[in-house]
């Protein structure tokens, strides 16, 4: 992409995202991430009314009485954006491509972090981790992240979510608010993701397109697997073919959702054919009430 074109796209994304962030905050003074960045402070004796999930079982077993971990809200949050840049994210039939939607989500979340003076970092991943920008503050830093997102072209094939999850574990040493933006077209290993979710405040933003699960009846068409490049002719006029396509797609979706639930990861679906702002507003409102599923 030409540098001048890239800078124009970054500028347009900044202008739009800043307006959307104001809508997202809806007049609130605190960060939309508030209440989820917590750091350990001490262990103290359990008292009735404490959360059972906060019990420190190692200390409890050692001392013979229940003790709970006490956490305090971090005054400085680190936001980490993990973006899937694999070829399947180039898909889009009813609005922007998934990767364009993902870029806008990165912009909104990045400027939301900037508004609260939080640090924000970036991981771009496909078949392997393609690019990493350590967390930092400031407008110029957020603009640099957006430039990298818009200019991303995967050098590796396929999608390997597990490799990216292990990279996050190796590089993010302090607890972070992690937003993982992907269509999750790769199998998820719950064990890796459970570890990430225990160490960090992890949210999966799952990008969907209407044609992910439903084919229109338009006769014979050539379908391409964007990850492998394989092509095949499909008769979309066949009801059986359309039903088989939908069943297989829904099964993939069910496996992803089940794996994320087993790993206790909050999941938010964002679609190319609908505005994502109401979805994000509901999600962050639920976070402030202590819920994470919307």
Summarize the topology:
Blueprint: H1 3-25, E1 38-45, H2 57-63, E2 67-73, E3 78-84, H3 98-115, E4 119-125, E5 129-136, H4 139-150, H5 161-171, E6 177-182, H6 190-199, E7 201-208, E8 220-224, E9 231-235, H7 239-262, E10 266-271, H8 277-288
Parallel strand pairs: 3-4, 3-6, 6-7, 7-10
Antiparallel strand pairs: 1-2, 4-5, 8-9
Helix pairs in contact: 1-3, 1-4, 1-8, 3-4, 5-6
Structural descriptors:
294 residues; alpha/beta; Rossmann fold; 2 domains; six-stranded mixed sheet; two-stranded antiparallel ribbon; 40% helix; 23% strand; globular
Count structural domains.
2
Order of helices and strands: HEHEEHEEHHEHEEEHEH
Care to count the β-strands? 10
Q: Note the main sheet.
A: 6 strands, mixed
* Helical content band: 25-40%
CATH topology of the largest domain: Rossmann fold
Total of DSSP H or I helical runs spanning 4+ residues: 8
The CATH superfamily of the largest domain bears the name: von Willebrand factor, type A domain
Give the strand order of the largest sheet, numbering strands 1, 2, ... along the chain: 5-4-3-6-7-10
Tell me the distance between the termini.
37 Å
Task: Quickly give the structural class.
Answer: alpha/beta
Low-confidence stretches: none
Strand content: 15-25%
CATH architecture field of the largest domain: 3-Layer(aba) Sandwich
**Any idea what the radius of gyration is?**
21 Å
CATH class of the largest domain: Alpha Beta
What does the average pLDDT come to? 84
